[in-house]
Amino acid sequence: MALADQTFGFFIPTVNLMGVGCAKETGTQAKALGATKMLIVTDAGLNKLGVADQIKKLVEEAGLKAVIYDGAEPNPTDKNVHDGVKVYKDNKCDGIISLGGGSSHDCGKGVGLVIAGGGNIRDYEGVNKSTKSMPPFLAINTTAGTASEMTRFCIITNTDTHVKMAIVDWRVTPNIAINDPLLMVGMPPALTAATGMDALTHAVEAYVSTIATPITDACAIKAIELIASWLRPAVANGTNVEARDRMAYAEFLAGMAFNNASLGYVHAMAHQLGGFYNLPHGVCNAILLPEVCAFNKIACPERFADIAVAMGEDVTGLAAVDAADVAIAAIRKLSKDVGIPAGLSELGVKEADFEVMGTNAKKDACQLTNPRLATLQQVMGIFKAAMGAPVSKAASV
Fold it and tell me: Could you tell me whether strands 153-158 and 163-168 are parallel, antiparallel, or unpaired per DSSP bridges?
């Protein structure tokens, strides 16, 4: 997919710990970063469950101090970030631990950006707007979806415009990422499904990206294979540690793929739904994914044929464009099997908002690497197809 005259980088945290029980190394790793007092950025739910206190104890056992900030909302806002900055400064912290899913990690990254460079988090929207390195940063993941624990992406909602700001900056990549499946066994089925479909979206969009490389291809395809095999078991039984472990690897591989190949219109459009309606990101991605794939398939049918095979489908003897349809059908079936809502209409999305959301989606950084160019009317058509009516072909006209 990549052009011959382009050069490519590969971004990933310096240290990545994976496997059952690896979170026990949190204190040792935090100490190795050279910090003395860590701000633990998390959400109210994980704090209430005592998970944040478990991590705090590990940090303190290593001889460091820690304070908990649990203000990360499901779609973290600029206010969440600046509230976290205040806690960091008031407690004289010198390092950050983000604990949770994408919301906690993104909020923590926002805090780090402002601590390092000053100003408002809104100043950092776009690509590589920072000029100073963040404080020592360790990200502990509790979901198998966003991969924010290891990416250079940070998504923060602007509370004035209700638009999600896409911050893409190599300096927000955490120094250390920890993926312990034992921290994921408590995820309820609906969250497991949504985050798993988010990971699938990352892998699919990265694989068909205009800047995909052999390295990102390998990560994306393996991620798709794992998700196709293990998401259903993880949703069916959250205490299935093997399924949790495989999904942890899948989301990390998908993160490696999109962190370097970027994404496409699924995310560009899902960001608008999250900003406008405060909807769950993974659910929005899952509903939009097959519709965007239907729109994109004519740009790279061979790539979608590869996705069909990775999903476990037999496409022997089929033309690439027909194999692409098989891939899209497999995605729809997986989404249905794990209980994703059938359409955006079930989430309260209004057709009257399509134009403004479509306009904003066309400005989102993620759409830049979508394999097929889209007009505003086509983006609006994809939104309409995703409402739940059987008109998916509308996105392609």
Answer: antiparallel
Q: Specify the pTM.
A: 0.93
Query: CA 62, CA 80: separation in Å to the nearest integer?
Result: 28
Task: Retrieve residue 285's tokens.
Answer: 């991605």
CA distances from 91 to 34, 67, 88, 280 (A): 17, 8, 5, 32
* pLDDT tens per residue across span 47-91: 999 999 999 999 999 999 999 999 999 999 999 999 999 999 999
Hey, is 210 helix, strand or coil?
A: coil
Listed residue (27, 67, 70) closest to 48, CA to CA: 70
The number of helices, as runs of H, and strands, as runs of E, in the chain is 14, 9
CB 154 within 8 A of CB 113: yes
Under 8 Å between Cβ of 297 and 324 = yes
Q: Give residue-wise pLDDT tens across range 332-366.
A: 999 999 999 999 999 999 999 999 999 999 999 89
CA distance 76 to 105: 10
| DSSP element (H, E) containing 280 | none
> Helix 320-337 crosses helix 214-236 at what angle (to 10 degrees)?
30
